[in-house]
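Chapter review: from sequence to fold.
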Amino acid sequence: MPYADVAGGRLWYEAAGEGPPVVLLHAGIVDARMWDAQMRSFAPRHRVLRYDLRGFGRSDRPTGPWSETGDLAAVMDAAGIERAALVGNSLGGLVAIDFAIERPERVDALVLVASALRGYGFDDGATPEQARRWEEAEERGDLEAMAEIDLELWAPLGGDGGVREMVLDNARLNVMTGRPERPDTPAVEWLDRIEVPALVVTGSEDVSAMDEIADVLVSRIPRARKVVVDGADHLVPLRQPAAFDAVVLDFLARVAQSGR
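The token string follows.
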């Protein structure tokens, strides 16, 4: 598989298919393997690109300052993609929003799935007992115990389908040093600058804060609408791939027909 060269390392990526480009950005507790089903179902209609974000999966861990949006641009360049629709889950949604604000000329549409939002604080729904267990696990450096709490919070429907394996594999990120460089002005204050169509997707079984963020996105992004997928938690594409694919592919087809 190819790698994109970035400042301080390399990022793993994979591209397949032909058609209007789509970039898939994974959630912050897993890696690009979460998009296995979409790589198959999107490729007949789209040029599909996925990659492991800095420090996740097969990509290098950061050794100094880095930019999530700079990394995304570098991967798109390596894959020969100038513009694309961005589909981001959780952390991936946060990166997609930032990229659309910073580099609007490279974005055709947004699909924001249980998305985080820079500058918008939220309650992850952890109980006092879970918070206590997290602090104790962090103090003793027990990454597996911390990953198990992540599973309880963000994947309450269980660890089947490779979910638990991915979460445990990426647990080392809890000790990643440093933070990515991001603009001083938070994205929540710039949402009205996003001019492309946006589809905001949540799962019916996710923590309530994700629904709150979704409502903020829909109210402030001019061309946004919201869809709730039943029977899905935070990892919507993994939990209900058929329902997710149907709504996203329909949205992307409408974007292509309208020319944005």
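Two observations follow directly from the output. The chain has nine helices and eight strands. The chain has one domain: 3-258.
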